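Changelog entry

Holo records now carry the ligand SMILES as an explicit input line rather than a separate metadata file. Below, a converted record for 2-acetamido-2-deoxy-beta-D-glucopyranose, shown in the new format.
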Amino acid sequence: MATILLQQTSLLLMLILSTVALDCGQIVQSQRNEIGRTRRLLEAMGGQRSPTECPEDPDFGFPMEKIVLNSSKEDARMAIGFFLEQIQNIFQHNFTQTNWNMTATDLFQETLDQQQIQWQRCSIVRTREQATRHSLHVKRTLKMYFTKLHIFLREKEYSLCAWDAVRGEIFEVYSVVLSKLLGKL
Ligand SMILES: *[C@@H]1O[C@H](CO)[C@@H](O)[C@H](O)[C@H]1NC(C)=O
Ligand SMILES: *[C@@H]1O[C@H](CO)[C@@H](O)[C@H](O)[C@H]1NC(C)=O
Ligand SMILES: *[C@@H]1O[C@H](CO)[C@@H](O)[C@H](O)[C@H]1NC(C)=O
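Structure line, unchanged by the conversion:
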């Protein structure tokens, strides 16, 4: 009995260890593979919107150059994790006023959670050195951009139109930003 228990425990331990040791390259590849599906889910969330009802989407001005130029691999790894986390945060706000497809919305949030958790493993394992001055700058720049989205939603009282502008914005930037940053790894 004890032997079986011991065997099971060591099997479990091996499983955990092999999961932790999962190569960063594999995580990068799986993050690449998620891009298309995540975009399709973001698209599937909306659907019934008639564009004429809403004012033109504002230009939130994603700071692409500041994020991508001069960034090392470590900067890029940090930026990907932070970017995913910030998107997760945005979609924690109240969207009861939208007419989103809840199945697609749940799946979208689920996949973002998974991507973020998976990415953490890659950055924790591989980036032990202290944050560089540049990586702090990249983080601050990203934070400022996402703050703009938060303020916009709040000012528009989380209306359907405001949410669809934000969803459209994330739809646009998600794949471009990730492709560029993943391309650096
Ligand atoms: C990149 O680095 C160069 C040289 O240090 C600097 O002149 C330029 O402003 C930097 N660009 C960005 C977007 O940080
Ligand atoms: C979300 O907003 C709706 C009205 O738009 C409100 O009735 C509801 O209480 C809010 N929910 C939360 C959790 O704040
Ligand atoms: C809602 O989204 C799911 C998942 O993308 C999709 O299978 C389903 O057809 C959508 N429902 C409607 C009413 O569009």
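Spot-checked after migration. The CA atoms of residues 82 and 122 lie 13 Å apart. Residues 63-185 form a domain with the Growth Hormone; Chain: A; fold (CATH 1.20.1250.10).
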